[in-house]
Amino acid sequence: MIVDDTIVFIVDDDEALREALGELLAANGVRSVPFKSAGDYIDASKPDLPACLLLDVELPDINGLELQRQIAQGDHPPIVFITGHGDIPSSVRAIKHGAVDFLTKPFSDTALLEAIHSAIVQDRETRAKRAELALLRQRYDELSPREREVLPLVVSGLLNKQAAAELGIREVTLQIHRRNVMQKMAASSLADLVRIAERLEIPIQHSRRMGGT
Amino acid sequence: MIAALHRTPSVTIPTTLALGLLASWLAGTPIGILAPFGALFLHARGYLLQSLWAGLLVAFAAAIVAALLYPGAVRETALSIAALVLVAACIGALIARDPTGHSNPAGPARRQAPGHPGAFGAVPGEAADSAIHPDDRPAIAQAAAYAFWTGVPQVMSYRLRQPDGSYCWTELRAEPGYGVSVDVDAMVSRPGDRWTVAESLGETAQAVAAAKVIESLHGKAWAFDAMGKFTYVTPAAQIAIDMALEDLNRRLDEREFIDGGEVGWMRGVHPDDVDGAASTLRHCLKTGEPWNIEYRMLRATGQYVWHRISARPTRDGEGRITGWFGTSIDIDVYKKTEAALRGREQQLELLIDTVPAMIWSMTADGHPAYLNKRIMEVTGATLDTVTAADGSLSLKKMIHPNFLDLAEKTFAKSVTTGTPYNIKYLQHRADGTYRWTETRAEALRDETGKVLRWYGVSVDIHDLITTQTELNFRKQELTRLVDLVPSHIWRLTPSGEPNFYNRRFIDFLGLDEAGLETPATEQYAAALKAAIHPEDADRLWAELKHCLLSGQPFAMRYRLRRHDGVYRWMDGRAEPLRDEDGSIIQWYGLSHDIDDQLRVEEALRESERSLRQLVETLPALIYCAAPNGEPIYRSEKLREFLGFGLGDKDEDGRTRLTGTLEAIIHPDDLPDVREKYGRSLATGSSYAMKHRLRRADGEYRWVETRTAAMRNVEGEIVQWNGICFEIEDQVRAQEALTLAQERLARAAQAASLAELSASIAHEVNQPLAAVVANSHACQRWLTSDPPNLERAQKTVERIIRDANSAADVVGRVRALFRQTAQARNPCQLDTILHEARDLMTEEATRRRMRIEVDVEAGLPPLELDQIQIQQVLVNLIRNGMEAMEPSQRRVLRIQSRRVRDLVRTEVRDTGQGLGAPEKVFEPFFSTKPNGMGMGLAISRTIIETHGGRLWAENNQDDGATFIFTLPVEATADHDR
C-alpha cells in the first residue's frame, strides 16, 4: 500500500513520538510532514495532495479538538486523533465532528495505518467530488440567463408547453433552450440533468402537479 | 474867611444881589430878591438902614394902594409885591436886630454848644462892627480864627460896647471839647462900682508903684505893707470880689493878721483854702520869702474862682521889707481844665485798666513804659520785672521758655524795622501757669514817620487755642477714623451727587490724587459711574433715585470695579441726615467690600449643597445622632429604606432611640446592637456591626452599620455620624463565593489524585507510544525485502532511548513523593480530619450522606504533610461515599484513637464491602466505571512514607473500613 501521491501531517508536541511515527510511516512507504504545534501546522504551506492529519489531543498552544473546530469550515484533510489518556467525552466529540479515528497511545501500527489509509481514501473521494462539482459549476456559469431560467423548470418535470407558458415564450423556443442546456451541461439524458441539478442544489420550483392547476 | 467876608461888604451886596436876581429869574418868582435884601440889611448901618426901612415902607404902601386901586392882575401882582416887601421887612428886622440893642448883658456871649467851632467865628464876627471896640476887633478875629482852626482853647478879652455907647471889658473863654466855661459877669465893670485906694501909701509906695507896673502888664495887681495890710488893689479886682481896701483890711478880731488874727480878705477865700493861704502869707511876711499860692476867691457873683497869687517884697536900703506887691492871675480855667483833664485821664486809665485786655506801651527804642492794671494782675508782672538792668525789655518772666527766643527775635525785628508785630505764645501767669496769649503791637508815629511809642495789647486766647487744638485734634481723629475705617464712606448731596469719599474709597477707585483739585463732585460722580458693574447699574440708579425721592434708607448689593479692573461685590447703605424741618441735608453712605465674604458664602453654600446632595444621593443609608444617641438626621435613602421619617416612631414614655431601634432592628440582633451601641455612646469609641434591618416592606435585610463620633476642637462629642450599607447582596455573594471557593478547593483536592495518576499515565504513555511505534517500524524495516538494516538499527536505538525515558518518568514520580516528605510539620490530626470532613460535607449532602467524626481528645501533634494526609482522607471518604451509593444506610464514620505509639484512624462506610480487601491497593485496580485505580495505591504510598500503614477490612455487618496508622513520633521511611 505504498502510495506516493499521498501525505500525512503529524502534529505532536513530543519529538520522540513524531520521529517514531515518521519512521513507522516511512517504513510503510507513507510520506509525512511533522509539526510540533497547531500553529506551525496552520501557518505551513501544504502540498495539494490527498492527505491525512495525525493530531495529538494535548498540544502546547491549542487543544487538538479546538484545532479541529477551527479548521472545520474550510477544506481540510480528514483527522486521526492520537492521545495519551483519552476519555470518552473527548473521543465522542472528536468522532462527531468528523474525525476518522481516535487512537489512544500506545497504539498498534495496524490500527494507525488503517486509520490513515481510510482517511486518505476518504480525502481522495472528497477531492474527486469537489473537482466534479467545480466542473458542473463552471458549466452552469456558461449558461445564458434564459437557459438558467429554463433549467429549473425542465428538471422540475414540467412539459415543454408548461415551461414555455411559465416563461411566456413559445414552445419551439423553449425546446431550443432546453437542447442548449443539455448540451452545455453535458447531460446525456434528462435524468442525468436532474442529477446534475441536484448536485448543484438547484431548487425545484414547480412540480408537474402544481403546474396543472 | 468869615472874618474876611465881614470886612468886605461892598463885594457881598452886589454878589448876593446878582445871585438873587438870577435865582428869581430862573425860578420865575421874586423870592430870590430876598437874598440881596438880607445882604443889604446885614451891612446897612445908621442912615442907610433907616432909608432901607423907609424904602420898604414906601414900597409896601405903594403896593397896597395899587392893590386897592387896580383890580385884576395888577392887584394880584401888587399884593404879591406887598407880601414880598413884608417878608423882606421881616428878614430885615431879624437881621438888623442889634444884639447890643437889648438889655441882656450876656448878649455877646451867645454861648454855642461846646465843641461847635462855628460859634467862635459867628460871635465876635457878628458883634465886630457894632459892639466890639474897633481896637480889639483884629485881635478877636485872629483869636477866633485860631481857636476855630486849631481847636486850642482861647481866652479872649475885648471891649464890648454897652447900650449907652460906652465900652466894657468882656472876657470870653472857650475851648473845644472840655465844656469848661467861666462866668465873666462879675468882671464886667459898671459905673458906680465901689473901689478905693489907700489914703496913705506909707512905706508901700514903692510896692504900689510896682503893683501898678504889674497892673499895666497883667491887669490885676495889689500891694500891702509888711504886716499884710493892703494899700493898693487894682480897682477891677476890688470890683470883682466886691471888696474895697477897707473891707480887705478890716480886722475881724483883736489880733493882727500877722499874729494869727483874721482880716476881711480872708472872708473872700474859700474856706478850704483860707487856712493854707493865711499861714503861707504869714510865714512869708515873717521870712520875706516870695509868695506863691493858689486858692479860690469868692467873686461878687458868689462864685469861687481859682487864682494864682504871687507876691514879692520890696526892701529898703537896709534890706528891711518895706512892702509887698503882687498879682493875682485868674487860673480858674486852667484849674478846671486840669481837673477835667485829670478826670479824663483817670477815666481813660480806668478804661484801660478795666478793659479786659492787657495793654502796655514801650518807648521807641523798646523800653517798657507802661503796663495796665490788668496785665499786672494777670501776669503778676510789674514794670520792674519786665525791665532789664539797662532799661530794655526783658521777657524772661513773661514768656514760656519755648517761645522766648521767637518772641525776642520778633520783638527785636519790629523795634528795628518799625513793623507791627503779632505773636502767639504761652504767657506766664501770676498763678504760675502758662496760657496762650496773642500780642499785637503797633508803633505810634509822628508826622515825619518817626516812631514815638509802641502800643501793644495782649489777649488771652488760651481757650480759643485749646478749643481750636481740641477741634483740630478731633477733626484729625475723625478724618483718620473716616479714612482708616475699613469701609468706604461717602456722602451725597440731597440730589444724589457725591461730595465726599473717604481715603479708602478713593484708593479703591484709584482716583487721581492730583485730579482731586478739580471739583470733586464731578470727578466722584464720574468715577462712581464708571466703576459700577454694567449689570448692576440700572438697578442701582433706580434704587438710589427711589431713595432720594422717598427719603428711605438705601441698602443694596452691587459690584464695583476696583482700580485694577476687578469687580468686587459691595454692600452699600446710606441714610439721610435731616434738619429740624425734616428736610434732607446730606446722605451719608457706607459700603463694605463683601466680595470675599460672598465668595466664601457661595463656596460654603455650594459645598453644603454638594455635601447634602452627596449624602442624600450616596447609595448608602446615612444617619446622624445627638451625643446621647438620639437620631437627628436620616438621609433620603435611609428614609426610603425604612419607610418612615425621623419623628414618625416617637411615642410617649420612650426615647426616640429606643423606639427606632425596636422598630428597625431584627429582634435577634437587637440585644447585640443595644449593647454595642450603648457601649459606643458611653465610651465614645466607634461602632461597627452587621445586623439585619427592617425594610419598609417588612423584609429584614443584612446591613453593616458603622458609627463614629464627630468631635469639636475641645474633643467633646458633638454628633454621631453613621452609615449603613446594605450588605444583603454582599452577604449572599460572600456566601456564594465561599461556597464556590470551598467547592473549588474540594475539587482541586479531590481531583489531585486522579489528575496525578492521569499525568503519570501521560508521562509514561508518551515514551511507550514511541517505543511501540518504533518497534513496529523496526519490524517493518527488517521484514521488508531487502531488509533495511540501517533504518532498523536506528529505530532500535530510538526504542532503547524511549524505554529509558519511560523508566525516568517512573523514577520522577517516586522522587515527587519522596520530596514532599520534607514539608512535614507537627499537626493536630483532628484539625485535618475536620477540614477533610468540611471539604466533603457538601458532596455528602448532595449524596444525602452523613459524615460523623469522632476524635479522641488530647491526641498528640503528629509530624506529617498536612496536604498529603488530607488527600488520603479525602480519597478514603470519597471511596466510602462511592461505595455507599447504592446503600440504604449512608453514614460514614471517621474515628481516631491513640493506640500505644500510634494513632489509628478508621474510615468506616456502610457500603457493599470489598471483594478482595488487599487487591484494592494495587495500582490501576478500580471497581468504578471510570476509575483510574490509582487513588488507594497512592494513598498507601503516602501513609507508608509517613511511617504508617494503610489497609482495608470488611465490617462485620456491612461495608468496609479503611484503617491507617501514623506513628506519634514520625520516623519517615526514606528507603522505600
Could you walk me through the main structural features you see in this protein, from its secondary elements to its overall organization?
The complex is a heterodimer of chains A (213) and B (976). Chain A is built from ten helices and five strands, in the order βαβαβαβαβαααααα. Chain A has helices spanning 15-27, 38-43, 64-71, 88-96, 109-142, 145-155, 160-167, 171-184, 190-199, 208-212; strands at 7-11, 32-35, 51-56, 79-83, 101-104. The model of chain A has no long low-confidence stretch (mean pLDDT 84). Chain A has a five-stranded parallel β-sheet with strand order 2-1-3-4-5, sandwiched between helices. With 213 residues, chain A is an alpha/beta fold. Chain A folds into two domains: 7-130, Rossmann fold (3-Layer(aba) Sandwich); 143-212, Arc Repressor Mutant, subunit A (Orthogonal Bundle), CATH 1.10.10. In chain A, α6 packs across α8 (171-184), α6 (145-155) packs across α9 and α7 (160-167) crosses α8 (171-184). The N and C termini of chain A lie far apart (60 Å). By secondary structure, chain B is of the alpha+beta class. Chain B folds into eight domains: 2-97, no CATH class; 118-176, no CATH class; 186-338, PAS domain (Beta-Lactamase, 2-Layer Sandwich); 355-467, 2-Layer Sandwich (Beta-Lactamase), CATH 3.30.450.20; 485-599, 2-Layer Sandwich (Beta-Lactamase), CATH 3.30.450.20; 618-726, PAS domain (Beta-Lactamase, 2-Layer Sandwich); 733-816; 824-967, Heat Shock Protein 90 (2-Layer Sandwich), CATH 3.30.565. Helix content of chain B is 46%, strand content 22%. Chain B contains 27 helices and 29 strands. In chain B, the strands form seven sheets. In chain B, strands 4-3-7-6-5 form a five-stranded antiparallel β-sheet, sandwiched between helices. In chain B, a hairpin with a 5-residue loop joins β21 and β22 (717-726). In chain B, α2 (9-27) packs antiparallel against α3, α3 runs parallel beside α5 and α4 (47-69) packs antiparallel against α5. The A-B interface holds A 14, 16-17, 19-21, 23-24, 26-28, 58, 82, 84-85, 87-88, 105-109, 112 and B 758, 761-762, 765-774, 776-781, 784, 788, 791, 794-795, 798, 801-802, 805, 930.
